[in-house]
Amino acid sequence: MKQRFDYKWVTVALCMLMIMISLGFGSSTKSLFPDEIAKDLGVERSLVSIGESCRYIAAAVVNLFFGALISKFGPKKLICSGLIALSFAMLLYSVADNLAMIYIAGSLLGIGFSWTTTTMVGYIVGIWCSENKGTVMGLILASNGLGGAIAIQIVGGLIDPNTVGSYRNAYRLIAIILACFVVVMLLFFRNRPKNMSLDEVKPSKGHGKKRGKDWVGIEFSDAVRKFYFWGILVCIFFTGLILQGTGGIVAMHFKDVGIDYGKVKSLLSFGSVILMGSKFFAGFLYDRIGLRFTASVCTLASILASFLLAVTQGNALGFYLALIYMVVSQVALPLETVMLPIFAADLFGQKSYVKVMGLFVSVSTAGYAVGAPLMNACYDIFASYVPALILVSVLMCFIFVLMQFVISAAHKEQVRILEKEITE
Hints:
Layout: H1 8-26, H2 34-41, H3 45-64, H4 66-95, H5 99-114, H6 118-128, H7 133-159, H8 167-188, H9 220-223, H10 227-247, H11 250-256, H12 261-288, H13 291-311, H14 316-332, H15 339-348, H16 353-382, H17 386-423
C-alpha cells in the first residue's frame, strides 16, 4: 500500500487549497473593495485602481525571473514567501490611510501572486504529472471558483454598506487565513517526487505528441525568432488587459446601473461557482480536442461577455442579462490562467517551457496593469463603463483572428520539427 500511494495527489490537493485561498480570497473579492476605499479616502476610483496596476507591474517583473528563482530556491520556499507577502499586503490594506500605502500593498500582492498562482501551478504540474496536464491544471485552477464563491459571501458580508460593515476588517480576516495556510504548506508540500532532480525535464517517450502530453520543443533562443512567438505575446497582453480590466469593474458597473448590492454579491458568487467548471472544462477540452478549439471557445466567450455587460441595465431583463454574463465571462477567464501554461507547453515544448511560461505570465499581468486604470479612466470621463466595454469587445475580435494565425504557424513548425527528428 505504501509503495502504491502516489504523493502526486497530495500535491494536487495542496495546490487546489493554495489557489482556493490565494486567488479565491485574495483576488476574486477585489471588485468589492475599490469603491469602499475610494469613499473612505475621498479619492477617485481611478486613483485607487492604480494599486491594481502596481500589483500587476510587480507580478510582471517578478515572473520574468521565475526560472532563475525556482532553480535556486525551489517551489516550497517561493510559495511560503508568496503567502507571507499576500498576508502582509492584506494587513497593509487594512490600515492604509493614504494612496501610497495602497500602492505598496498592491506591489506586495503582485509578488505574492507570482509565487502562488498560475506560474507556480504550471511548474508543479509539469514536474509531478506526465500526462493529462490540461485536465490536472484545470482541476487545480478551478478551485479558484470555489474559494471565490465562499470568500465573496464572507467578505461581502463584512463590507455590505447596508450593515455596519468594514472593508478593513475584511482585509484582516483574509490576512489571517493566508498566514495560517503557510503552516500547512510547510508541513506537507514536497518540492518534487522522490528520485527526481529539481531541474529534471520529463519529455514524453517517442517522437509523437499526444494532447495533454509533453513534446521536446525548441530552445528559448530559437523561440524568440519565430514571428508567432510575438503574435501570441500580443494576444496574451490584450487578453489580460480586457479580461482583468472588465472583471475589476463588474461589481461597480452592476451597482451603477441600479442592481441591488445583495443581488450583486449573489451574482459574483454565482460566477465563481461557474468558474470552477469552466477552468476544469478548458483543461479537459484541451486534452481531448486540442488547443485551437479550446482557445477559440474561450476567446469567443470573451467577445460576447463584454457586449452583454455593456447592455446590462438595472431592470428585470438586465438582471437576467447579468446572469448570462456571469456564465459567459467565466468561460472566457481560462485564457488568463489555465491556457497560459498550455500555450507555453503546446506551442514551444519542454525545452523552453519554464522561461516561456514566466514570460507569458509577465506579459499577461502587464496587460492587467493597463486594463484596470483604462477602464476606470473611462468611467471618470464618461461617467459610464459602456464605451470601454464596446471597444474591448471589438478589440477581442481582432485577437481571435490573430490567435488563429499564431496556432496554425506554431503547429506547422511543430510538425516540421517532429518529422525531422523521425528522419534523423
